[in-house]
Amino acid sequence: MTISLLANLLTEPPGPAHYMTVGAVMFVCGAMCMATKRNALGVLMGIELVLNGANLNFIAFGSKYLNNGGPDLGLDAPLIALFVIVLAAAEAAVALAIALNFYNNHDSIDVDRADQLQG
Amino acid sequence: MDLTPATALPKLLAAAWLLPLASFVVILFIGKRLGPHGKWAGYVASGAIVSAFLLSFTAMFIVWLPNHELPVAHHGDHHEEGDHYDAPAGADHHHDSAMIGEPAPLASHAATDSPFQLVALQEESHADEHAAAEGHAANPPPTYYFGDWYALGQFGNLKLTIGYYIDALTVTMFCMVTLIASCVHIYATGYMHDELHDPYHDHEVIVHGHHLSRPGRFHRFFQYLSLFCFSMLGIVIAGNVAMVFVFWELVGICSYFLIGFYFERHSASTAANKAFIVNRVGDFGMLIGMMALWASLGTFAFGDKQDAKGQTLLTDSGAIAEPGIFSQLRTAENGYRLVPPASMIAEETRQQPAIEAEDAAAGKAGHWLLLVAGVGIFCGCVGKSAQFPLHVWLPDAMEGPTPVSALVHSATMVAAGVYLVGRFYPAFSPEALLVIAIIGCITLSLAATIAITATDIKRVLAYSTVSQLGYMMLALGLGGWIAGLFHLITHAFFKSLLFMCSGSVIHAVHTNDMTEMGGLRKKMPITAYTMLIGCLAIIGAGVPLTPIGFSGYFSKDSIIEQAWSHAQTNGGGYWIFLVMAVLGASMTAFYMFRLWFMTFTGAPRDHHKYDHAHESPRVMTWPLILLATFAIAVAWPAFNLTRVLEQAQPVGTAAGGSGMLIDDLVVPAEHLSHAPDIKLRAGLAAFGSALIGVFGAAVVYLWGYLNPNEIKQTFKPVYTLLWNKWYFDQLYNVLFIRPALFIGKQIALFDRGVIDWFLHSCAWVCRGVAGIFSTVFDRTLVDGTVNTLANWTWDFGLLLRNLQTGNLRQYVFFIVTGTVFMFVTASVVRFFAFS
């Protein structure tokens, strides 16, 4: 099933499915990055990847060209994407402040050393 | 005001009855605050009883007498032929005959095959100079007013009520009781003045080497006295046996309070207990009698249900709607003779045709039941009226204050027994009457002998009371209904007078012992001469064969006449009743004048006490003078006391009766005792015996021809026997008290040894089982489960704790794997569920 699905992607003209595939790959990469990076900044980058993977989906679903006149999200999709970008920026600002403080305390931004919250 | 008897009498007498109760309640709640040391309590109680007395007299002289014509006089010396009950006063009985029907035709009397036929024949043969016996076959029911105030309960057809039964006897008793109680109350306000002091010093009680000092109990005394009067009046007005029993017990408890008034004195509290317990013995018999009646007749009521006008209620068929005891036992169809109704004969006996043929055999069962009921009720009277063998409590009751003795011995408690015999008379079978006569005869002679040797002034009077009560019972038992109750009324006056005189003497010399008195006549003349009047009245002083004499003369003579008539009718061993009555009269005269001579004449035996003696205050002497007047005059024919009593003569008893179980026993009709020859002989016998008694007393104690001490020595064994009261107390001690104590001890041992042991074992076993439960079930199972659960929760918590590592990358990994896991699970479920 998966094989035929991939084959369809290669033969079909570009549509939301292609964008979704790229978004999914970006999402998985981001998630892998978050789970494996010990550097806090690396983790932040992983978060950006995850968010942008999701944003890609919104944009793809919002484009009337890709949907061929079918139902789409219209202007809502780019707006949600914009909100996500704004939130990501705010989150990055907060996270950078935490990272700076953490560095001041521990001389490092290794997230594995931030385990004071353990039960 | 409406003065119709049917409406006025219940109201007047109920008011007279309830006034002492009101006084009791008032003194109960605020007695101590009534004046200094509760002094006004005496006025409250006296006021209540005097008002009750005025109401009773209103009932008697304004309501009863003007509305109820007295029966034709046939008492007295000139007994004329044809002057009999066969012509009952018309106005008096008009509605009775109208409502219940004419008395049974004379012919039916002779035609029936009842044992009463025998009476008729015997009456004829014995009383030749009298009119034909049929004339006396029956007197109709007396006029009475019967009704209920309050229904306590109804069980099917059986009703328990608080009601009234008012006839001439009730009204007379009300007047007598309230009059004497008024005198006693007024006298007691003087006599009990010591109790007004705080503290009161009781010289007969030593506590820690000192005389007892306690607060005065003046108000308490009058509180009990009021309740006592209320209870006695309750017995008199009671309309049914159950109500009688209630007030019977109330009288008992009042006597307990009053005899034990000085309860700090051991003798007083013991005497109170004794009076109460001995009375319980009698009441036990009374309960049996009541059960026999309740079970067989289905009612306790004396009279028949009446309408508002005092007329008997009839059903449509003309039968009595709700017949009472009396009209069930003495029906008009049977000519008012005592015949056990069908309900008294056992069911199976009634239904067996073989036995039905033999009427006599079938009737016997009912007669036995009647005997049980009669003797049972009489048992209660034996207790209350201190008859042999329950006479032992009355002399001990002298421990109470003297006014109480005066009241108990004349108007209230002991009178109640005689009154109940009189009230219940229609239900007594001739055999029950024989029992009453025997008990009365034994009592009168026994008590009289003991009184001869007693030296305590009050005890002499107490035994005299017992003896006189024996006279009344004897008279009632021999068929002398009027004679017995007549003596009850006259005796009440002179006995209360005698007791109050003795109280006056005790008040003056502070001792009860006659051997320390003497010559007091000069110091206290009023007491001495009123007491002399009392003595003359009790011995029945009078001019024989003329209507001139003291009250006792009339009543005692009529008792002896009845005894004579009975002895003449029955002959044989029945003469003993007459002999004992005459001998008793002689002894009465002896001990009464012994008392008077020892107290008031001769030289003073104790000079210190003599010098101290003084006449009592006026509040005490005025009641004495009043009572002395009554003691002289109350029985005079001019005052018609016997004719008033005759209005209440129980239905059918004027005809006498004959034995049901003992065939040759005949209870003679009362009017037969007025035959001139009996009257002559009885009058002379009574006079002679009294004269001998007085003469004997004078020889020994006034003129001193014989030395009492020498007589004592000569008759030492007899004297010792009498001095120790025939050893009755000792006998009862051996017969009842010791066995009771012994059995009690055995039962206590059984209780401790067996029952307690058993209970303790049970408890021990229970504790053991509970212990096992505690360790096995509770500690292990329940606690174990709970603890295990707790441990699991704890361990699970610890397990979860490990998940909380604080490692950011791990969390991300968990989130991702979790999401993937959920996604996969959802996909799989979706795949299998919808494919």
Automatic annotation (TrEMBL), chain A:
Gene3D superfamilies: 1.10.287.3510
One Pfam family it belongs to: Oxidored_q2
Transmembrane residue ranges: 16-34, 41-60, 80-103
A single cellular component GO annotation: plasma membrane
UniProt subcellular location: Cell membrane; Membrane
Gene Ontology molecular function terms on file: NADH dehydrogenase (quinone) (non-electrogenic) activity; quinone binding
Reaction it catalyzes: a quinone + NADH + 5 H(+)(in) = a quinol + NAD(+) + 4 H(+)(out)
One GO term of the biological process aspect: ATP synthesis coupled electron transport
Entry function: NDH-1 shuttles electrons from NADH, via FMN and iron-sulfur (Fe-S) centers, to quinones in the respiratory chain. The immediate electron acceptor for the enzyme in this species is believed to be ubiquinone. Couples the redox reaction to proton translocation (for every two electrons transferred, four hydrogen ions are translocated across the cytoplasmic membrane), and thus conserves the redox energy in a proton gradient.
Protein name stated in the entry: NADH-quinone oxidoreductase subunit K
TrEMBL record, chain B:
Compartments in which it is found: Endomembrane system; Membrane
Record EC number: 1.6.5.3
GO biological process: ATP synthesis coupled electron transport; electron transport coupled proton transport
Transmembrane segments: 12-31, 43-65, 162-188, 221-239, 284-303, 365-383, 404-426, 432-453, 460-482, 529-554, 574-598, 619-639, 682-706, 811-833
Enzyme superclass (EC): oxidoreductase
GO molecular function, one term: NADH dehydrogenase activity
Alphabetical list of InterPro entries matching this protein: NADHpl_OxRdtase_5_subgr, ND/Mrp_TM, NU5C-like, Proton_antipo_N
Classification via Pfam families: Proton_antipo_M, Proton_antipo_N
GO cellular component: endomembrane system; membrane
The keyword Membrane belongs to this UniProt entry's keyword annotation: yes
Origin: domain of life: Bacteria
Membrane topology listed for this record: Multi-pass membrane protein
Domain NADH-Ubiquinone oxidoreductase (complex I) chain 5 N-terminal residue range list: 154-195
NADH:quinone oxidoreductase/Mrp antiporter transmembrane domain segment(s): 238-303, 364-569
Record keyword Glycosyltransferase present: no
Keywords recorded for this protein, A-Z: Membrane, Oxidoreductase, Transmembrane, Transmembrane helix, Ubiquinone
NCBIfam families: NDH_I_L, PRK06590.1
The protein's name: NADH-ubiquinone oxidoreductase chain L
Origin organism lineage: Bacteria, Pseudomonadati, Planctomycetota, Planctomycetia, Pirellulales
